[in-house]
Specification:
This protein is of the alpha+beta class and 136 residues long. It has one domain: Glutaredoxin (3-Layer(aba) Sandwich). It has five helices and four strands, in the order αβααβββαα. It has a four-stranded mixed beta sheet with strand order 2-1-3-4, covered by helices on one side. A hairpin with a 6-residue loop joins strand 3 and strand 4.
Length: 136
């Protein structure tokens, strides 16, 4: 940490610490918040997962959406990297594939804010898809 030379420097330090403390406090009760897990194995990183994770962190903060953004290892969907798992409070997780910053923006605006599913969901299993077709 550098020297504090002005009141503005002190305020910036205070704001930075407030963000870090908020993240720490939110991690104690993550099920009450939007949870975002970005797959950051080698294949994900090579496909742009770091940029996607940074985008989620910055945009959620700008839009004042309370969320916990974490990284995870391989989810097993190497063909669809970058992959992101989104869990809304009280709901089952949804995994999205081929997520770039444009799709991440759609996920925030449509799914996280409104609960509207976005194209690109990776199915959990074949049986679930077949059951859904039979119901229609």
């Amino acid at each position: 940490m550098g020297q504090v030379k002005s009141l503005a420097d002190l305020r910036k330090i205070k704001d930075d610490l407030r963000v870090k403390m908020s993240l720490r406090e939110n991690s104690n009760n993550p099920e009450s918040l939007v949870q975002i897990k970005v797959a950051m194995a080698t294949c994900g990183i090579a496909s742009g997962a770091k940029q996607v994770m940074d985008f989620f962190i910055e945009e959620l903060e700008k839009r004042n959406i309370q969320a916990v953004v974490t990284q995870t290892g391989c989810m097993g969907y190497c063909f669809a990297e970058p992959t992101v798992e989104i869990t809304l409070p009280g709901q089952a997780p949804v995994v999205y594939g081929y997520v770039d910053t444009k799709k991440a923006d759609d996920i925030i605006e449509k799914y996280i804010k409104s609960g509207e599913l976005v194209d690109g969901i990776i199915p959990v299993n074949y049986e679930t898809i077949e059951n859904n077709k039979e119901e229609k």
